[in-house]
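Reviewers asked in the last cycle whether our approach scales beyond single polypeptides. To address this, we selected a multi-component target totalling 359 residues and predicted its structure end to end. The input consisted of the following lines:
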Amino acid sequence: MDDSQTAGSGRTWFVAGMRGIFSLPAMMLMLSFVGFCAFTAQAGIPVEHVVFMVGAVWALPANVILVSSILGGANLLATFIAVTLSSIRLMPMVAALIPEIRTEKTPTWLLLFLSHFVAITAWVFAIERVQAVPRDYRVTFFAGFGVTLVVVNMLLVAVVYQFVTEFPPIVSGCLFFLTPVYFLASIWSSARHPVIYMAMVIGLVAGPFFYWLAPEFDILLAGVGGGTLAWLAERQWRKRGEVRA
Amino acid sequence: MTVLEGWWAYVFIAIAGWLATDLWRWLGVLAGNRLREDSEVLNWVRAVATALVAAVIAKLILYPTGILEQSPLWLRLGSIAAGAAAFFVGRQKPVIGIATAIAVLAIGLWVLGF
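The resulting structure, written as structure tokens, was:
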């Protein structure tokens, strides 16, 4: 791509990022947030708390775990641990994205601020599209997309909250189901490492198994136990491949 | 059902939600250039993170809340199976898998009189 022609101004690239709100991943995410909204409305969480959660936590799995913990009556520490363990994945995601978008001049405080807008959808979108953006404007492009996505979903949740409880049962059932189905499909299709597939399959089995074995720590045990097992298995398999080659 | 009240709700969400997630995002920024993309530690972190989210997904499917709580398990698992089949046949396009799973669920719920 010819930089002199496509560079444009910072505002142009910010707006280009904003336009990502009309992309398919953004649409899927908005529907998932409507589903999340239905979940919280049925559970009786007040709308102002839900809007605050969407803006403050942003990552949907972390939000779901936060609400589940609150409903289960978990205390602050137990909730913090459950949410923080589900969010470890954000660290490698952010770490992988930063070298793609920063320049030598990008201040660290700006990256720290913008990292808040990273979650599965924004990450997949950015990794895919940022290649076509001149390096000087990649941070701007991501800011345009990330900020818009968060603000629009906060407004969406605020508006939709009062209607979701009146949805026909089939609609609210399908919206609830959208969240797990969307995560399954998007994680699987965006995986770039073999270990992701292995961990996904093992985690799906380990989740219910540990729920049956130790319901209080199920997610934690399934993550650390299942993930380590997946990592060991994948490494073993990889090494055998290397020996053969 | 426990719902948090007053200002405590915001403090609770800010600490157990906001701080608990942004902590990792900030560490991600700081690690950005240092963590090697092909390191074994990162591979393990990836595996644990993915298994964690997968466990959450499995729980949402097996033990849903709201309307789906009353739906039969075979219908939910059948929807996932149909969606997965369509996903792999359709060259792993997320939208194909998602649309199929949701359509099967909707038809099932309708037939069962929901």
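Chain B has three domains: 1-34, 36-66, 71-114. We regard this as preliminary and will revisit it once experimental data from Aim 1 are available.
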